[in-house]
Request: fold
Amino acid sequence: VVERLVVVGADAAGMSAAHQALRTAAARGRELEVLALERSGHTSYSACGIPYWVAGDVPSGDALVARTADQHRAAGIDLRLHTVVEAIDPAAGTVDLRDLSGGRTGGTGGTERVGYDHLLLATGAHPVEPAWARTADGEPVPGVHAVRSLDDGAVWLDRLTSTDRPPRTGVVVGGGYIGLEMAEAFLRRGLEVTLVTRGEVMGSLDPDLGARVREQLVAAGVTVVTGAEIDDLELDDGHSCCLAAGGRRFDADVVALGLGARPETELAAAAGLPLGDSGGLLPDDRQQLTAGPGDDWAGSIWAAGDCCESYTRLDGGRRGGIRVFVPLGTHANKQGRVAGENLAGGDARFGGVLGTAVTRFSGGGVTVEIGRTGPTSAQAAAAGYDVVSLVTESTTASGYMPEASPIAVKVLADRGTRRLLGVQLVGGPGTAKRVDLAAVAIWTSQTVDEVAGMDLAYAPPFSPVWDPVQIACRRLADRW
Ligand SMILES: Cc1cc2nc3c(=O)[nH]c(=O)nc-3n(C[C@H](O)[C@H](O)[C@H](O)COP(=O)(O)OP(=O)(O)OC[C@H]3O[C@@H](n4cnc5c(N)ncnc54)[C@H](O)[C@@H]3O)c2cc1C
Reply:
């Protein structure tokens, strides 16, 4: 019997699932055909690389494509670009799709109903867009743009390199990692940059560490406005605008939106599939959707990537735990692989999320790296932990080496169990990826005492004799 898998959304999660499903099916002697449907003209590209393309570090959008459509097809996947899924009938096991290409890409140019045995939803997320970013007609305000897809990247590159009316001033709205990366791109393109953010810069850090990032942005020449929310926009002459926040006004030739993302689940919602508090789909740790009583589609629908909520690792990483929406490529790839394995008869588990993330801001003579894993102090307290924490300052290499740069490490632990809960890092080159050590320690439930005693590598160009994360854990362990 040939089973059919239909994949909706052919980027990180969808194509990871498609390839893994084919591998698992082949290993188990099952016959599986895979139809992957993608609304845009792109597949398997690194959105994460777009700010670096816009900044000028990456030569072309093509360089961000991990696998081309032809490579997917050569692996046996029937991939249809410019094809949108408009409806799902879970009870009948069908999807309705529409070819948006007008037949240009070999499609019918019309609509079609296709049956499936397994459906994988990998529809990703929308960038959050405030009302002022659109005109009264619903069109995007010229020069105001989010950054999500390769097409967005091309729009940004075009605008920033325009010789006709080169932009001079750029405002970035939102101080998270995409905001920081776009501020870097603007600065590197020679713009005067203002970053406006509702709270402290890098809200995924504790505010005291976020403040350290802000100081570096200011040192690089970025005007940083915290505690302000843009509430209005006036268009000047179609090329520049003025943003307002609580009486303050900011002129901008271009405005980058870095306000986060929300799950793209309208299709799933219209099909009656259950959604969580963040609007994301609710798969279990096998990435399978759980049918309610009376639902007759049990077992056939899977979901992965930015359209999903996930369980936090700290409380077990599975059903019954705290659910979070953490849209990152690292999870999309892993969840896609887990879904693909399971739907083809295997048994894989997604282990939950710690929110491990890194980024960098480099421009204006400043390079600051940021790493974070586990809950912030506020999140840990809200989850019921009795949090003890401490910030230490150290260097990324032995202090006498030319590569040594400052690094601040914040560690959070649980008073009762002495378990490491979270680590946040802000510092110069060599800082950010140290967070992986902390992520492994938290993942495997180590105490601060155990981390302080671990056998970690040391040589002067790479580390002080005590690794900065170990120093912080040791000092915290000595406190109680
Ligand atoms: C600027 C930027 C920088 C980033 N940097 C990082 C980083 O450094 N590290 C990190 O881990 N993550 C990063 N991310 C996040 C990462 O890119 C996403 O988590 C990842 O792309 C999610 O993959 P996905 O497959 O779930 O969704 P997406 O990549 O959003 O893909 C979903 C696809 O589904 C298609 N689709 C949706 N609905 C339909 C439909 N009805 N029919 C057909 N097709 C449909 C869409 O066209 C889209 O191509 C970044 C994201 C951005 C935007």
Remarks:
- The longest strand covers residues 387-395.
- Residues 12-27 form the longest helix (16 residues).
